[in-house]
Amino acid sequence: DHEREVLANRLSSLDFGKVLADNLDAHTEGTGAGLIACPEMEGWMNGKLGLLWCYGNPGVGKTMISSLVIKTLTKKNPTAPVLFIYCNHTSQLATRNYLGAVLKQLLIYPFVTESMTKAIKAIYSRPQIPDQKELQSILTKELSQHSKAFLVLDAFDEIFEETVRHDLVKLFEELISGGQTHVMITSRPHIRSIKAEVVLEIVADSVDIRTFINSEIGKIPILNRTPWEFKDKIIKEVQQKSSGIFLLAKLHMSTIHQKAKRGRPSDVTAALQGLHNNFDKTYQDVLERIQQEDSESSDIFYCIISWILLSYRSLKIEELQSALQLMDRKYELDPSDFLDQDYIIGLCQGLVIIGNESGTVSLIRRC
């Protein structure tokens, strides 16, 4: 109802639901199913494990797996709370911010208890800002009222503050001690503070990468007119040069897409020969291609990257467009004269993405 919606917005301005929607929008149908169906993951989703730690190297698709898990849990458990947090190195938050975001999700569930609604209403009826202990107490008490609940935290390694990591680990221990709440964490392998019942390594499945490449080929008109042998050659070359890293496959297909714009298969063949199986070299190649554009385009690209990297928080596309217009010495904003979103995406050649749901602009990252 309206009252709960108002309380939810007071709890947090964070909306991880939009991040989830963006991730699922980018999902290639048919990928990730193998890992979702593995015994460790199935055991956790069936409530047999308290804490599951999923680790993986950069670029293997940990965030996408987290999103697929959330989607699967929501379908399998329509009356159980499925809560989630997406960490991001560009947005360093305090523990109470994460608690507020999770409570916000919980509050809008139709089956949340009346006692939780009253507790949140009570803490916001006074002038003091609710502290971390209060928020954690409300969360723990509410989840204990449900026979089953799930919490997924993605990219734990992107929390840089050790005290925040420590607080969250203690929170997870408290939640799973009751037996009703089940927690899943993803991170890179170097994290050592997580004490999980089961540890699962996330690796990019070769069949998934092939499925992704084939899907991307279908989006390039000229390649749809070429013989299947040529498409198969692209799939094999890109897969080989991706070294089991989804992110590399994405950057390689962005390169193929750029070269295919000329309409000549020979340009695609030349691009295939120049692909690297190393992320840093591939990234450098993209930068060099952009630098070879006209000076104005190159300057705009570096302005885009600077705004994304140096902004205090993640920017919406409209904010980036406004900033670019102001840098062009235009002192009055005119939205009708903004640089087009498609131009920005095309100029950055796969290095920058815009969330369909959130509208947030970000660099492609080795998650």
Automatic annotation (TrEMBL):
Q: Does the keyword Magnesium apply?
A: no
Nephrocystin 3-like N-terminal domain residues are 30-188
Q: Keywords for this entry?
A: Repeat
In terms of SUPFAM superfamilies, this protein maps to: P-loop containing nucleoside triphosphate hydrolases (SSF52540)
Q: What is this protein called?
A: Unplaced genomic scaffold SPHSTscaffold_53, whole genome shotgun sequence
Q: What is the lineage of its organism?
A: Eukaryota, Fungi, Dikarya, Basidiomycota, Agaricomycotina
Q: Which domain of life is it from?
A: Eukaryota
Pfam families named in the record: NPHP3_N
